[in-house]
Design goal:
The protein is an alpha/beta fold and 184 residues long. Helices cover 40% and strands 17% of the residues. It has a four-stranded mixed beta sheet with strand order 3-5-6-4, sandwiched between helices. Helix 4 packs parallel to helix 6.
Length: 184
């Protein structure tokens, strides 16, 4: 029910821009086992070479290790793992908040946006606060975790608001939006 509807919507929206999509469902064992990881890498590269946009999600129907902590846990982490797998230059995480702040801007009016993070320190991780909105499960904590995975793999990571598609254009044009985590 859910995946069919979700893929239908993605297909419809991307089709309006003459873009083809493919669904890729992963489990953690694919990333941990070298042969499977190589096959996954090759699949992503071939899809991208064919100008097909991979829509990636965890294969929840067979990811039965959830209780033992052996799944990806959230889509932010999954996105960082996929970015690492394909050797991406940059990972962009779209979210319902426009950046990392010194405090929760919904509660603290003095909170300041942090435009650039050079190193993800325990202090930066502490700024992430608790769980996210009703729309997601991870909040800023999982985005910081994903940024850490990406930057340690030599990939810049950006967190920007997904409310306005023009934010992507602004980011690509080098405008000062969101928070950019610099690769190591």
């Amino acid at each position: 029910m859910g995946q069919c509807e979700l893929m239908f919507m993605y297909d419809k929206v991307f089709g309006e821009y003459n873009r083809n999509i493919a669904q890729v469902l992963l489990t953690k064992d694919v990333i941990l086992e070298p042969i499977k990881k190589s096959h996954a890498h090759n699949t992503f590269i071939e899809l991208l070479n064919m100008n097909i946009i991979p829509i990636v999600n965890e294969n929840d129907t067979v990811a039965v290790d959830e209780l033992e902590g052996e799944n990806f846990g959230d889509n932010d982490t999954l996105s960082a793992i996929v970015a690492t797998l394909i050797g991406a230059d940059t990972l962009v995480i779209l979210t319902d908040i426009d950046a990392l702040y010194t405090a929760n801007p919904k509660v603290d009016k003095e909170a300041k946006r942090i435009p650039v993070i050079e190193n993800i320190t325990p202090e930066v991780e502490a700024m992430a606060g608790g769980a996210g909105s009703s729309l997601g499960t991870g909040g800023m904590q999982t985005k910081i975790k994903a940024a850490k995975i990406a930057t340690e793999a030599g990939i810049d990571c950006c967190i920007i608001s997904g409310d306005d598609p023009n934010n992507l254009y602004d980011l690509f044009e080098g405008k000062d939006i969101g928070t950019v985590f610099l690769k190591k």
